[in-house]
Amino acid sequence: AMNTSLDKKIFDMSDKKIMGSCFCGAVQLEVKGEPTAMLYCHCKDCQAWSAGPINSASLWSPELLEVTKGQEYIETYNKTENSCRKFCKKCGGHLMNEHPGLKLIDIFAVILNSFSYKPTIHINYESKTVSVKDGLPKFKDMPEEFGGSGATMPE
Q1: For residue 127, what are the contacts with CB-CB under 8 A and spacing of at least 6?
Q2: Which of 15, 17, 41, 136 is paired with 68 by a 20 to 30 Å CA distance?
């Protein structure tokens, strides 16, 4: 009996659906499973696009994401081939950022309901406008696995 409940618990965790939406609610989405990575991004593009100093990124395999409502309201803006930024045409609310080179999609953690966001690193810290003293590694650009130098900086 113990193994069955343990198996069920493991199954439930991987099958858990997390809902999210844009600012006005016209676009709704759900993501299941666990993100590949959770991090803070300090790059100039994230700062300019979000009008904030830090982006709360959660990177997911695209197949874990389903837009459940409002697909017709999703607009994409490509400043570079590395980022396909998606937002709601109705309210302008930011949704996600596809990263084709990484084969991952950044679903902005702040739009996900009841999501346990636990970032493990900071990236592009050389561009920071706000210093963060949280004990997490601060990568000058990005970890080597993501195509960066892997160099870190002090808090």
Answers
A1: 42, 43, 44, 47
A2: 41
- Are 49 and 131 in contact by the 8 Å Cβ rule? The answer is no
DSSP 8-state code for residue 136: S
28 φ/ψ angles, rounded to the nearest 5 degrees: -125, 145
Name the token pair of 44.
């100039």
pLDDT tens for 47-74 read: 999 999 999 999 999 999 999 999 999 9
Q: Which two tokens stand for residue 11?
A: 């199954």
- Burial class from Cβ neighbours inside 10 Å (0-12, 13-18, 19+) for residue 4 reads exposed
- Nearest CA to 31 out of 63, 56, 70 is that of 63
How far, rounded to the nearest angstrom, does the alpha carbon of residue 10 sit from its chain's CA centroid?
Answer: 23
Residues 7-36: pLDDT tens digits?
A: 444 555 556 899 999 999 999 999 999 999
Residue pair 38/57 in contact by the 8 Å Cβ criterion: yes
Quote the pTM value.
0.85
Mean pLDDT of all residues belonging to the chain: 91
H helix intervals, 44-90? 44-50
Closest listed residue to residue 139, CA positions, set 128, 45, 56, 118: 128
